[in-house]
Amino acid sequence: MSWLRPEGVIIDGELHRGLEVAIHHGVIEEIRASSARPEPYILSPAFVNAHSHLEYRGMLDQIPHPEYYEWIYELTRLKPLETPEFVREQCMVAAKENRATGVAWMGEHSDRTGSAEAMIANGLGGWIFQEVITANDADVAARMKLLRDRLTQTKALCTSQSSLSASLNPHAYFTVDRQTLRELGENGEPSSIHLAETIHESNYTRTGTGPLADRRRSQGIPFEIYGQSVVEVLNDLGVLRPGMQCVHCCDIDKKDIEILSTSGVTIAHCPRSNVRLQCPISPVREMLDAGLTVGLGMDSPASGGPIDMFAEMRSALDVSHERNAPLTPQEVWRMATSMGYQSFGAPKGDWNIAIGSKTPLIAISATKEASVESMIRLGSPTSTRWVN
């Protein structure tokens, strides 16, 4: 058994001083008051990256387009130019960077190969959400067979690490045909979907206007106008249900939040990416007040920038104040740890520092004057090391 005597211990987002923690074979055996001189670090549960795209690490700083719509189509243009070998290499780089910033668990959206191998090689647990994109496919059945075969291969890799699992997920409403959306909503498996990231999605479903609608018309692809927000449309399709993580949720109103809170979904908030792509600021304060579980995700390096959970937490604080609906540092820390883990369907209370817990732990360099907010403001991957 080894004893840890940090300057402070973060339990459920709150900083506690004067404690020491005993660990035996990776399990927390005891937490008790300590009079010993502490070491200059803060002990915390490891971070959880609630939403990730390892495969886009090679596009860091490569897409100058400032707005989401132009950005996403430039990313789509660049994807085929990257070789499978390059993508696998970049997945490995991004996985190492997640580990360096204190991430132990992540929700990885994957449209190509490489993520599972990179996560396993770097000891990262989590869920691989293999993206389903069928909107432009003439033969959806053939496309789905290809994706299911790829999922079988990914699951075979995941068997070598019990903390890594995989399932199919719809990329977004506007990239998946309605029948497949309905089927993925009905299958009951853990899943994740990009939702209301921009104003374009609800303009598309409500009035048939905006760049998404214009692109469909230019391609000769028919689509329906429902007079509803994209949240309402997906709810009617049965996509919004327990086990579904909704990513972004920037362009949502009070009615949408009510639907999300009663449907059993969870949320992944990606503030740096949203700022970069000029998305509306996500109403996280209102979602938390409505009882929704909100995790913090670093999204794609192509939009979110360098992989750094402290930078993501800083952004979450800053944009909440910009909306005049502030989050507390403690809430943001929970979003980066326990709530992030719960956004994958884990019970409340998991991923914390408690007796009997196997939660991975990190030590963050800090002085005795440190607070949760100062660690968010001053922390970096270089100030973080692994404990167990």
Task: Spell out the blueprint of helices and strands.
Layout: E1 2-4, E2 6-11, E3 14-16, E4 19-24, E5 27-33, E6 39-45, E7 47-52, H1 68-78, H2 84-100, E8 103-110, H3 115-121, E9 125-132, H4 140-158, E10 164-170, H5 178-186, E11 191-195, H6 199-206, H7 211-219, H8 230-236, E12 244-248, H9 254-263, E13 266-269, H10 271-276, H11 284-289, E14 294-296, H12 301-304, H13 309-322, H14 329-335, H15 338-342, E15 361-365, H16 372-378, E16 384-386
Parallel strand pairs: 2-6, 7-8, 8-9, 9-10, 11-12, 12-13, 13-14
Antiparallel strand pairs: 1-4, 2-3, 4-5, 6-15, 15-16
Helix pairs in contact: 2-3, 13-16
Structure description:
- The protein is of the alpha/beta class and 388 residues long.
- Helices cover 38% and strands 22% of the residues.
- It starts with a strand and ends with a strand.
- 47% of the residues are buried.
Short description:
This protein is of the alpha/beta class and 388 residues long. Helix content is 38%, strand content 22%.
User: What average pLDDT do the residues reach?
Assistant: 95
| Count of beta strands | 16
Shape: globular
**CATH homologous superfamily caption of the largest domain:** Metal-dependent hydrolases
What class, by secondary structure content? alpha/beta
Q: What gyration radius follows from the Cα positions, in whole Å?
A: 21 Å
Summarize the amount of helix as a percent range. 25-40%
Low-confidence stretches: none
SS field, number of helical segments: 16
Q: Please state roughly what percent of the residues sit in beta strands, choosing from under 5%, 5-15%, 15-25%, 25-35%, 35-45% or over 45%.
A: 15-25%
At CATH level 2, the architecture of the largest domain is Alpha-Beta Barrel
CATH fold title of the largest domain: TIM Barrel
Number of domains: 2
Largest sheet: 5 strands, mixed
N- and C-termini, Cα separation = 12 Å
Order the strands across the largest sheet as they lie in space: 3-2-6-15-16
CATH class of the largest domain: Alpha Beta
